[in-house]
Write a structure and sequence with these properties.
This protein is mostly helical and 160 residues long. It has seven helices and four strands; from the N terminus they run ααβααβαβααβ. 34% of the residues are buried.
């Protein structure tokens, strides 16, 4: 895909992943408990305290847990979610995302993306739904959003 590129972190920019790095557990109430079966799968699928977004969604399908629950279990186990399927984070220490703006965005795609905005941002799940509807990859949706100046919100796994 032509829109793939490497972007440096913007100074002063913060996201949930960096804000809580090394203490993801603190995002949740102290009494929060995990489903032991989901926790076991998260441990098995993680490597060196990292779990890719794709692997997390594999756990969702394998276990029947919600994406939010899998993300919460990863947080409570201090396992970092990496390699976002939208291309937003987890591709190396200095890279914010790996997707640049698309050359052009069709009027139909722009309308669908703008229709999905909540408080001016596109929720992760909405981006995935638009990708499915238009037969596009998730990173192509990110490229379209980069072109249109649309930001993302509400990661399904709770990373942002």
């Amino acid at each position: 895909m032509e829109a793939l590129k490497k972007l440096e972190t913007v100074p002063g920019e913060s996201d949930m992943t960096h804000e809580y790095e090394g203490r993801y557990r603190t995002k949740h109430a102290p009494h929060t408990r995990t489903d032991p079966d989901v926790a076991k799968i998260v441990r098995e699928k993680s490597r060196d305290k990292h779990l890719t977004c794709k692997s997390a969604f594999g756990i969702v399908h394998e276990s029947g847990a919600s994406p939010d629950e899998v993300g919460q279990v990863a947080d409570l186990l201090e396992i970092k979610i990496t390699t976002c399927q939208l291309g937003l984070f987890g591709y190396g220490r200095k890279k914010r995302n790996i997707v640049g703006p698309a050359e052009k965005v069709s009027a139909e795609l722009e309308e669908a993306l703008r229709k999905g905005l909540v408080n001016g941002k596109l929720p992760c799940k909405g981006a995935w739904e638009v990708a499915d509807r238009f037969g596009l990859s998730k990173m192509e949706i990110t490229a379209a959003c980069e072109r249109l100046g649309i930001r993302f919100s509400r990661c399904q796994l709770g990373t942002f």
